[in-house]
Amino acid sequence: MIRFEPREPSSLPRLILIPVAAAIVALALAAIPMLFAGLSVFNAYGLMLTGAFGSVFAFTEMLTRAAPLILTGLAAALAFRAKLWNIGAEGQLYAGALAAVAIGSGMIDAPSIVLIPLVVFCGALAGGVMMLGPTLLKTRLGVDEVVTTLLLNFIILLFVQMMLEGPMKDPMGMGWPQSEPMLDEAMLPKLMARMRIHGGLIIAFIAAIGIHILLKRTVWGFEIRAVGENANAARHAGIPVTATFIRVGLFSGALAGLAGVGEVAGLKGYLTADLSPGFGYSGIVVAMLAGLSPLGVVIAALFIASIFVGADSMSRATGVSNYLADLIVSMALICVLISGLFLRFKVRFVGAKSTEGVSK
Amino acid sequence: MSDILEILLNANFWAAALRIATPLIFGVIGALVCERAGVLNLGIEGIFTAGAMAGWMAVWLGTGLWGGVLVAALAGGFFGLIHAILTVPLGLSQHVSGIGVTLFATSLSYFIYRTALPDVSSPPRIEAFKPLDIPGLSDLPFIGPALFQQTPLTFLALAIVAVTAFVLYRTPLGLAIRAVGDNPSAVESQGLSVYALRMGTVIAGSALMALGGAFLTMSAFDAFFFGMVNGRGWICIALTVFASWRPGKALIGALLFGAFDAFQVRLQTEVGSFIPGQVFLMMPYILSIAALILVARKADYPRALLVPYFRGQR
Question: Under CATH, what is the fold of the domain B2-116+148-298?
């Protein structure tokens, strides 16, 4: 018989140790599908490690992959702090990317110093606006935001496809459904010569620090945490709950929108409907691994990015499906959920006899 | 106008509506029983995928069609068990756990499919369920082709609606399931186990969801494609609210939805040259949100939905 006893607020070492343990368990569990696919397990782990950290190129690729994951991770972490279940980061990412391309591919001709901030702002705004509907439906009518944000993902992606096959299609794109390329002046600067790593990573770091300060040091941050702890108590205490939800929704959507800006204006240079391999959903895993802490999100995103980049490289070398990466990431989420119990409770294994008095 | 009438008076249209509704019927009933027991199951999208993949692969490996249905249900039950453990005795967030189950079930299904069939360019096909020929009924004019030329899984879905309604409202078990979603401590005080009731219901509901997925690969199509579930699970979650957690209304909701979808596909051939195809593809998702808004004010959620229950603790 297992018994849970509530525990006092956890110490910092425990807060760090437990998600790390969950990540290690998830990586270890990956040995099962590796064996199933007929891989030599140590060889496969070795390939993954060198694939993510083995060279300067590998390392910069990992960082490039981490940039959108930090932003979608922050989007989920901030929203979940207020118990606003925004599962729509994938769609908000595409909304941000679409806005970035619309502004940055020739609509406005301006020097970088004007154009880049404009593209970044419009991308964030587009992502944020996508959360306005679900948040208002939640606060006004009590419609569950999980379902509306999930359904919006499909609607926004179809809208992007519509634009890419219609008004925003690149006439020089050989018939492919892709947007016109971004102007050079609208592209985020590269961080290293001959590598793909770009300014989106800087945006992600700034955002992480910004959200950390917002939550820890501002009145809005206090209100967000209070609403997340207990919305009814917060309302009685005079905290503007509706306004807080709307703010959180706007910020959360904007963060996901920034991830789309980075992918388009930092990496690809144009928009296609397969821009994101599920960054929005992986962001949820990142946020949970981070224990919803904005600075933890950076570390968790680096971990998830190294799994994706490492598994991609291992997949190319061995021919094993790179769905392995998604599998490891999903197992990491389940592991960290379970390990969260060890934060909130002391788990005691007790003999059957001694439970009689407790459970009845 | 006469075009619209022509669509509605065509038996094929009603047959298509029922066909489109079938996976949703399985899904809504599955989601409904879970929520009636107090557990939101957002694993549904992944469980659909797992049921579609597992059922198809079992048939492809030679279990026969009904063997495949059984394998799909078992796969659904397995992921239901994971969700049940995470949310019932462990009391974790039902939202996050459900998303976790969806990610896990989807990636595991894709990984197994890709690993078993590493380099096929076109997905291998199976001999799928054929429409039943019911003597007498299938030959009726209009009604026959509209309602009675469906595959066995459609009739199974209709039967499951009736069985679920009977169990929920006419048996002690159903009373206990409904009570455990409204007032779990009252159930505990009757000497019944809240954990066993909730976990059992989530597992059974998940098995039903997986049958919805199996319908896609074994009846609607004859192969497995990546991304084929395409949000159907989330649509079922919306329809559950629309149906105010009642099996009969769930059936009506799914049929209405199927009719709308069949209608817009046919309308597309009439006006498709003026309106981009994506607008029509968006309709199911927009309809689902509209359905949620429509019932929002009077939605009567099971009172203990999303609330974990811990023994000996109020």
Answer: ABC transporter involved in vitamin B12 uptake, BtuC (1.10.3470)
